[in-house]
Specification:
By secondary structure, the protein is an alpha/beta fold. 55% of the residues lie in helices and 10% in strands. The strands form three sheets. It has a six-stranded parallel β-sheet. A hairpin with a 5-residue loop joins strand 1 (18-19) and strand 2. Helix 8 (218-232) packs antiparallel against helix 10 (243-263), helix 11 crosses helix 12 and helix 19 (413-422) crosses helix 21.
Length: 458
């Protein structure tokens, strides 16, 4: 069977996978998926469908109250033995090396399945535990708050650097919409923000394919476009906690993870907007300060990114500007900025650039800039096809009450600008700030980032 964006969600879980017009074969490790009221009651069926006999339940005190106790009751009722590790905190759990080590220290080797109860961080920690232990993992989601439920990666804090680590995908996912509808409002906002990000991620994936030749799959992109349309159309119902709307948002978030798994990278789900969030988290870690929910930060990053692309639409780059930028690039000044913004993990970034990535190399920059100049009208067409204007998204998001501006979550103007300037440095991924740097406009856009956004945020 050929892969197609018209396949239903259950059809996308075909164990043998699909051939695709992009030349690759797409498959997912997800074998059991329910998005419906009462899905938690099928926990025993999920365990049995995976051929497992003794799960390790992983919760924190909040998720135990939300769904863990119910899941344990379902397993007991069906005579399925289990062990449990309960993180002893109601405070926010972080995806850190310490938290993973804590889980592995309490790991029961008699268990053949890791069954996380939660969303975000619990999901990431369980996928990492799956990677380390070789056991499959499953997740019972407690909130539609993030897009990594079905992905093959975990967003972890490693040495104070926010890092994407590739992991096994969950083999089973239960999204009980009755439970998820009771999630705190900020977690609903986070899910909306993480879905809105797909406007940017799909656009930048296409642009990177055009400029750098990066792999791109039109069918995967279309899966994401369809999921994005359905999820964004459900926002009003999500805030009214309607099960059908919660299901639509949850489906979009699950499909985001599936799309990343099909592509074998997170590109279908994240771009410049996610990098804003990653940088803000790293700044907070450096200062030993708390940070907001990932999806809320991503939503603000999406608004900032759309403001950047509003201005890109007005650009007419020239070879003279490119030549001037290449001539005046200073490696020492770049390193000084990286050290100021990234702090103790700066050397890791600098070493990766100098030994692996070479994004700053003049020859590569000139070659990319030449393709940008040759294909500028096509780039503008891609932006118009994929992205709404920033004021359009603002009108959609602001009535929800969710933050749309950095200061609303205590992010300073300086941190917002620094995150934008250094977004291209965090990893070897071509995003909007990469394009602007290649053609000599990054500093100018950084200077105008917040005034431009402020004028539309009124």
């Amino acid at each position: 069977m050929l892969f197609s964006s018209k396949l239903s969600l259950p059809s996308l879980l075909r164990p043998e996978g699909f051939s695709c017009a992009c030349g690759r074969r797409h498959a997912s490790a997800l074998r059991f998926l329910l998005i419906e009221p009462g899905a938690i009651d099928s926990a025993a069926l999920a365990v049995q469908a995976l051929g497992c006999t003794r799960p390790l339940l992983v919760c924190d005190e909040n998720t135990y109250e939300a769904a863990g106790q119910s899941l344990a009751g379902v397993l007991e009722k069906n005579a399925i033995p289990f062990s449990m590790y309960l993180y002893p905190t109601k405070q926010r759990l972080l995806p850190s090396e310490q938290a993973l080590g804590e889980l592995m220290m309490h790991f029961d080797p008699a268990c053949d399945l890791i069954f996380g109860v939660g969303s975000g961080v619990i999901n990431d920690l369980c996928k990492m535990a799956s990677r380390v232990s070789g056991r499959p993992c499953a997740i019972a989601a407690t909130a539609p708050s993030m897009d990594g439920l079905a992905s093959n990666s975990a967003a972890m804090e490693v040495g104070r650097v926010k890092t994407t680590i590739y992991t096994p995908s969950p083999a089973a996912i239960l999204c009980d919409t009755q439970i998820m509808a009771n999630a705190p409002e900020r977690m609903l906002w986070a899910g909306i923000g993480d879905m809105a990000a797909k406007y940017v991620s799909i656009c930048e994936w296409r642009i990177s394919h055009l400029i750098t030749g990066e792999y791109y799959c039109q069918s995967i992109a279309e899966v994401m476009r369809n999921a994005l349309k359905e999820a964004m159309g459900s926002i009003g119902g999500v805030l009214r906690r309607e099960p059908a709307a919660i299901a639509a948002l949850s489906k979009g978030l699950v499909l985001s993870g599936l799309a990343s798994g099909f592509a074998q990278m997170s590109r279908p789900a994240s771009g410049l907007e996610h990098t804003f969030s990653h940088l803000w988290e790293m700044m907070a870690l450096e200062r030993e300060k708390p940070y907001d929910l990932h999806g809320i930060q991503v939503g603000i990053g999406t608004m900032l990114s759309l403001g950047v692309y509003d201005k890109i639409r007005l650009l007419r780059p020239t070879q003279a500007r490119v030549d001037e930028a290449v001539t005046h690039f200073c490696q020492q000044a770049w390193e000084a900025t990286v050290r100021r913004v990234f702090g103790r993990c700066a050397q890791t970034i600098i070493d990766a650039e100098n030994t692996q990535w070479h994004k700053n190399a003049a020859q590569g920059r000139k070659a990319r800039a030449a393709r940008i100049l040759d294909h500028w009208e096509e780039i503008l067409a891609i932006i118009d096809e994929e992205m709404p204007r920033s004021d359009t998204l603002r009108r959609i998001l602001q009535p929800t009450g969710m933050p749309v501006w950095p200061k609303e979550i205590s992010i300073s103007d300086g941190d917002a600008v620094d995150a934008f300037v250094c977004s291209r440095d965090l990893r070897d991924r071509y995003i909007g700030s990469s394009l602007l740097w290649d053609i000599g406009y990054l500093e100018e856009f950084a200077d105008g980032l917040l005034p431009r956004f402020s004028s539309i945020a009124g």
